[in-house]
UniProtKB/TrEMBL annotation:
Name of the protein described by the UniProt record: Uncharacterized protein
A Pfam family reported for this protein in Swiss-Prot or TrEMBL: Cons_hypoth698
Organism: Akkermansia muciniphila (strain ATCC BAA-835 / DSM 22959 / JCM 33894 / BCRC 81048 / CCUG 64013 / CIP 107961 / Muc)
Keyword annotations from UniProtKB, A to Z: Cell membrane, Membrane, Transmembrane, Transmembrane helix
Family: Belongs to the UPF0324 family.
Entry GO terms, CC: plasma membrane
Length: 340
């Protein structure tokens, strides 16, 4: 490919890189830190501001570079996310937490899919919203988007629901805990927080507000949920292939999209569990990974205009609200049950 042809995608990529650096800078503001808003969330906001202001005034030839960030950069970021996790964390927290996460993730996705049908929602948006609520918020939506093969604005809608309800929980949980309304021990509160809050940043923010006795188990339980992203994507790929009306017709063999990046994600977790790399290098990789995911989020935002949000309607937020109620009350009941 000639330099002339390479220039256009590079323009779009460089634009997203610039926005991502800005997202990191803004996320370092004290009031933004106080809200526990990660660069990923700031990035999608910046991308959406661009989509609804300058987007129509810049060359359409920049779009391939933006789309490159929503796919290839995204998958690289998901794979490197494995350096934040180890299999030892699963063993340390115990089988009860693993069972709790498995139940929460499974029931939330199934409930979301069922409610999506009742609400007559677009299937892709319902799935992305359910996966974002059940596993790890924006990162889960990003991971599922290539498997679902949805339009970028649908992923942005799903991320928006996660941000709204996850941020609400981040402030609500500590307030309820301090008021003594939730009849949970510190360990139970940690399980409850890690198993039901949306984003890793939300769990960190809420956990820190309630003390280390709650924060430590909450973060580990949350990390176990994050690990479930890979098997969920594999199962999702198989299910979608079987239900795709365009496949299997006229005797054609149904095509299953194998999310290889999900397996690489697990392989990286396994490698990281061996602790072969210096801690400083792992920290550097994690910083790079956060930047890559911020690029992906920013690019998704750049593909999301308010017109597309209007097209999606209020139903995704209604679905996310129902799932939020389930996570709160269902998660509370499950924690009490497992602790018996």
């Amino acid at each position: 490919m000639s330099p002339k042809h390479l220039a256009n995608p590079l323009h779009g990529i460089l634009l997203i890189v610039l926005f991502s650096f800005s997202a990191f800078y803004i996320a370092d503001f004290e009031w933004v830190k106080h809200l526990s808003l990660s660069p990923l969330i700031v990035g999608i906001v910046l991308g959406m501001l661009y989509a609804n202001s300058l987007r129509n005034h810049l060359p359409e030839t920049w779009v391939p570079g933006i789309q490159f960030c929503t796919k290839q950069v995204l998958r690289t970021g998901i794979v490197l996310y494995g350096f934040k996790l180890t299999f030892q964390s699963v063993i340390d927290i115990g089988g009860s937490a693993l069972a709790l996460d498995l139940i929460v993730v499974t029931l939330t996705i199934l409930l979301g899919a069922g409610l999506g049908r009742l609400l007559k929602m677009d299937r892709d948006t319902a799935l992305l919203t359910s996966i974002g609520s059940s596993i790890c918020g924006a990162a889960a939506v990003l991971g599922a988007e290539p498997v679902v093969k949805s339009k970028p604005y649908k992923a942005a809608v799903a991320v928006s629901t996660v941000v709204i309800f996850g941020t609400l929980s981040m402030f609500l949980y500590p307030a309820l805990h301090r008021a003594g309304i939730l009849d949970l021990t510190p360990e139970q509160m940690g399980l409850f927080t890690g198993a039901t809050l949306h984003e890793v940043a939300h769990v960190v923010g809420a956990g820190n507000a309630m003390g280390q006795a709650i924060s430590d188990p909450a973060i580990i339980v949350k990390m176990i949920r994050v690990m479930m992203l890979a098997p969920v994507l594999v199962v999702l790929s198989i299910v979608l292939a079987r239900r795709d009306p365009s496949s299997g017709a006229n005797g054609e063999k149904r095509k299953i999209t194998i999310p290889w990046f999900a397996f690489l994600f697990l392989a990286v977790i396994g490698f990281n569990s061996l602790h072969l790399l210096p801690a400083g290098l792992v920290d550097a990789i994690n910083t790079l990974d956060t930047f890559l995911l911020t690029m992906a989020m920013t690019a998704l935002g750049a593909e999301s205009s308010f017109e597309k949000f209007k097209k999606a309607g209020a139903r995704p937020f209604l679905l996310a609200g129902f799932l939020y109620i389930w996570l709160f009350f269902g998660g509370y009941w499950l924690v009490k049950l497992i602790s018996l």
